[in-house]
Amino acid sequence: MQDQAGQLEVVSPRVPGAELYDDPKAAVARLCELYDAAAEFLRDTFLAAMESGHPGVRYRAYYPEIRLATTSYSKTDSRLSFGHVTAPGIYATTVTRPKMFRSYLEQQLGLLLHNHQVKVQIGLSDTPMPVHFAVANYPHITVPQEGAGSFTLRDVFDVPDLDSTNDDIVNGVAEAGPLGERPLAPFTAQRVDYSLARLAHYTATDPEHFQNHVLFTNYQFYVSEFEAYARAQLADPESGYTGFVSTGNVEITDATTPIPHPERMPQMPTYHLKREGGGGITLVNIGVGPSNAKTATDHIAVLRPHAWLMVGHCAGLRNSQSLGDFVLAHAYLREDKVLDDDLPVWVPIPALAEIQIALEEAVALETQLKGYDLKRVMRTGTVASVDNRNWELREMTGPVQRLSQSRAIALDMESATIAANGFRFRVPYGTLLCVSDKPLHGELKLPGMASDFYKTQVARHLMIGIRAMEALREMPLERIHSRKLRSFEETAFL
User: 423 with 429: CB under 8 angstroms?
Assistant: First the structure.
């Protein structure tokens, strides 16, 4: 076969044709076979071409695909927000790294097969697999930058195509395929592969280590507390935690094992307290600013976490607040601007009851305060997120008036972004902040004040986030994934 330009013969791996399956485990096993065959083919031909030069042919392998065809409006459990398609038709999605996503794929396919009582088709898609993503499975292989090899890479192999790597599905603007196929999953294989590569770059840990429950923070102070908690859990044989992964993929399973300090920290240092089945907790220090918050959540979303929470610091806006008080966000004033093109600011970002309850109960547990007394240390209200760290230095009348009109009780630079991207990507989200300064009332974040604050409050704040995540871990997935996050026509897969 020749490529579209008619210049080179196209050589692809020989694989069996598409087959129908009614067993999710068998279907995923077939996805693994097809994916491995494609990745190994591209690996071997790439290495041969790097050694011998231009092969005189074009090498191409394709992502595997899941395809479902249904002709009836199946009656499904109205309480369930996923696991079924909304109307008769053809639905399809490309798949990458199926071994990594095995549990997720088996779960989603199992629901689909149960709810529609039709078989799914597993075969090859017509989407080429970029060589960069194929060889990412093999850490010892590096793809040279354009011009560094003896031939132009894109003349022989497919490379990432940003025209088809986008968020059209989650943004609700995806078009049907040539046969009228509608999306079966929120992300295509290329979009997932792109994010997996970005995650490894930004966090300096492999995506395989990420757990289903993700905590975001905007201060490195939380990391040492998280490591201390992780070591205590590893020392307890009844904890259920199995390992702790630090920057650079350093993994320990014994509480006393030292962890070397990396020479160079990544942009978003990430740490994973692992539990079987991905039931542990990942902590990501996203640093300061909505751009980092968007970047992190853009990429972590493809892992389909069960929930993510922001546990960072904020400016308290009310005189009745004290340093160290907690803020449970139930609404967001979005002035971060980074998501305006994807999610208009007129879209409300609702609070999710399951997350709110888990966070409030965790605060009560840690502070030993209940009911009305809990208001001594925690306020519930609107959190405003802005894109200007030094907003206090601008003319104050306008910003302060808007904050007052919004009834905001706290201000930061990340929370609204994380919540909005959770809404956009259908990932349950929540925010519990800790007041570290009160700029409108003369209590600025100064070195001495900050040190005392960090010593007394960071450990407690982190523990609240951890306790909330552990409570959410025990909650059935169909309960935590609220229908609030689903639009009129949704993908069957979470």
Answer: yes
Cβ neighbours around 137 below 10 Å, total = 17
Among 71, 66, 84, 82, residue whose Cα is nearest residue 21? 66
The CA–CA distances, whole Å, from 242 to 93, 281, 283, 475 equal: 33, 11, 16, 21
- State the pairing for strand pair 182-183/62-70: unpaired
Phi/psi at 245 (nearest 5 deg)?
-115, 130
SS3 17: coil
Eight-state DSSP code of residue 438: B
Centre a 10 Å sphere on the Cβ of residue 128 and count the other Cβ atoms it contains: 21
**Structural domains in the chain plus CATH codes:** 10-189 (3.30.1730.10), 204-484 (3.40.50.1580)
Strands 58-59 and 10-11: parallel
What's the CA dihedral at 425, 485, 291, 456 to 10 degrees? -120
Q: How confident is the model over 17-70, as pLDDT tens digits?
A: 999 999 999 999 999 999 999 999 999 999 999 889 899 999 999 999 999 999
Could you tell me the pTM of the whole model? 0.92
